[in-house]
Fold this protein.
Amino acid sequence: MQPELNPTPVTVIQHPERERFEIFTADEPARFIGFLGYRVIDDTTLELQHTIISEEFSRRGFARTLVTHVLDRIRAEGGRIVPTCTYVQDYLRRFPQYGDLVASA
């Protein structure tokens, strides 16, 4: 089963200096939707710590859209994750095809 994403065009930007991925609407002017915070564990592994979506955009699938974009990017870059964010943990239970990204203990 593939995750159902919000159909609104979005842009996801990684900000290493802030240790987070941010999601914005793709329209002009772009509006901030939320972020997924992380901590760098090593060169290939990120601890995904918390997912925050602005109230204006909550409960519309933007968290799922953000996490899907982030996990797809991490996979494409050959990375791994340690999911301490409860939303990401739930996401991985619902979409086990991303389970291979979880770093072994």
About this structure: Residues 49 and 85 are 4 Å apart (CA to CA). The first strand starts at residue 10 and ends at 15. The chain has one domain: 10-99. Helices lie at 62-76, 86-94.
